[in-house]
């Protein structure tokens, strides 16, 4: 059976890397190739290096001021020769990016069966000016096999009349990636210059608040509010150090560097490699983020998360209590952060909760399912 695994951004790479490895372990039954669109470049390459994955095809599509029209068409036309050369039986796409949606359409054109990893997440807001919900839904339409992280995401697909037997609940592959990384970092042979630098940066007597943010819906006023809140948290809690790896998008870089440079207990740093970020998550007391992946990973490390979004396609975390949605209102961010910084009972209750996103065996389940259908 010929598998083609396609991805383009950092979070997709992290979440697909363990699947590539799992298929490679089963190379008697599968010929597996990897194609990257490189919708992100640097941030993607760092992940590939850590997981020791060498792509077979690299469309190298990242351009300055990239727009959705050219990106979508470049992915579809760029994949044509790849699909015609390799003729995969099955194509694997992940999540909700332009790479996901455009690759699933191209694969449909080629006649390959489409497998969607992290299938069935929904915000139910198709009117949003941002493309993620459309990307998920369009991909869902051309998908043959849906791999849903949770029961909630499976139910979303059933509501859309997808067939029960085409859906498998797997847990999120990000937990597979996380556990792999935690083990690799703990290995004494592992040296990472970013981890070395972080060790020098951190002050051992201060609690660490780790911050990330990148979502387009927060660009503009959202990031201004977020920065205002972080400034207040830093000023009011001198026993806290905020470490913020700032996303490379200029809409994020500008407000963050304008408003938060030169505050002694806020350290703005470049985005981190995945192992360095995992290392930092482990060291942190509290995480404040708008990232999807981070809210799925953090509960496995026992770290409470404040999510700077108003809506979420990840309600399981809110229901389980492992995250609190705080939006981008400065006062709400400050209030919830203060609660967790000041009330150790509330803090420990939250950090002990079970992670609803999985147990690290998602990729094994996916590969076993594919073995099952190919024996039919
Ligand atoms: N991450 C990383 N370096 C960083 C910040 C985040 O490797 O400096 C990882 C993080 O552990 C998670 C993923 O990147 O697995 C999340 O990516 P992002 O927040 O960009 O996207 P989202 O998950 O919101 O789609």
What does this structure look like?
- This protein has two domains: 2-171 and 361-374, Glycogen Phosphorylase B (Rossmann fold); 192-351, Glycogen Phosphorylase B (Rossmann fold), CATH 3.40.50.2000.
- The protein has 16 helices and 13 strands.
- Strand 6, helix 6 (151-159) and strand 7 (167-169) form a beta-alpha-beta unit.
- The strands form two sheets. The chain has a seven-stranded parallel sheet, sandwiched between helices.
- The protein has helices at residues 10-25, 42-51, 68-86, 98-110, 132-142, 151-159, 173-186, 193-201, 221-236, 250-260, 274-283, 292-297, 315-320, 330-342, 344-351, 362-374, and strands spanning 2-7, 31-36, 57-58, 90-94, 113-117, 145-148, 167-169, 207-212, 240-245, 266-269, 286-289, 305-307, 323-325.
- The model has no long low-confidence stretch (mean pLDDT 96).
- Helices cover 49% and strands 15% of the residues.
- With 376 residues, it is α/β, with parallel strands linked by helices.
- Uridine-5'-diphosphate binds next to helix 1, helix 11 and helix 12.
- Its EC number is 5.1.3.14.
- It holds the Pfam family Epimerase_2.
- Keywords: Isomerase.
